[in-house]
Amino acid sequence: MASVADDAVADLLKHAADGDAAAWNAIVDRFSGLVWSVARSYRLSQADASDVFQTVWLRLVENLSRIREPERLAGWLATTARNECLRGLRKSGRTVATDDDTMFDRVDGCDRGADLDVALLAGERDTVVWQTFATISARCQTLLRLLTADPPIAYTDISTMLDMPIGSIGPTRARCLDKLRTALVAVGITGE
Fold first, then answer.
1. What is the end-to-end Cα distance of the chain in Å, rounded?
2. Which residues 6+ apart lie within 8 Å of 184 measured at CB?
3. Sequence-distant (≥ 6) Cβ neighbours of residue 78 within 8 angstroms
4. How far apart are CA 183 and CA 170, in angstroms?
């Protein structure tokens, strides 16, 4: 059975497909935090995350009349954002261009070797954390991303996006974090 929020999203999609700018703006306002949180979860540069954000909305415009399950728009947007992030990462090879020819020549009064070791270890740890994060359920991943979005997303919006009672968000978050913690310990990453 569709909820009032699902009906509202369906109406917004229908009106947006008919060219209603206010309906389109309402959709963007409602789900922009979700799209940004997915883009940022891939640790893209600000410019690349902005490109993903814009491309996701372009894809929605292209497919407005084809969305068959409006109540699942949040999932559609998250999946589209994820696909665009992956496409961008494949295309860019995760390189960052710089015009600073002396970038690697500076010592800055510290042991560059030790700094480099710390940075490399942190990078390897972060890679393992994200790979482990990908092993927990998609619902847990989405919930944790929404709860860590910047700017924060209201619990009422998260409740609507995930079709989850507000009172279940905290306990579900705790279970998801426990699953992630257990998975991280299994691969040798602890809080210490």
1. 46
2. 129, 132, 190
3. 34, 35, 38, 142, 145
4. 20
Per-residue pLDDT of the chain (192 residues; tens, 9 = 90+): 345 566 788 899 999 999 999 999 999 999 999 999 999 888 888 888 999 999 999 999 999 988 889 889 999 999 999 999 988 888 766 555 666 666 555 544 454 556 777 888 888 888 888 899 999 999 999 999 999 888 888 899 899 888 999 999 999 999 999 999 999 999 888 876
Amino acid found at 54: Q
φ, ψ of residue 160 to 5 degrees: the values are: -70, -45
Q: At what angle do helices 73-92 and 21-41 cross, to 10 degrees?
A: 50
Q: Are 70 and 13 in contact (CB under 8 A)?
A: yes
Q: How far apart are CA 56 and CA 153, in angstroms?
A: 19
Nearest Cα neighbor of 83 from 35, 30, 28 is 35
Classify residue 30 by burial, with Cβ atoms within 10 Å: 0-12, 13-18, 19+: buried
Q: Residue 28 has which token pair? A: 């963007």
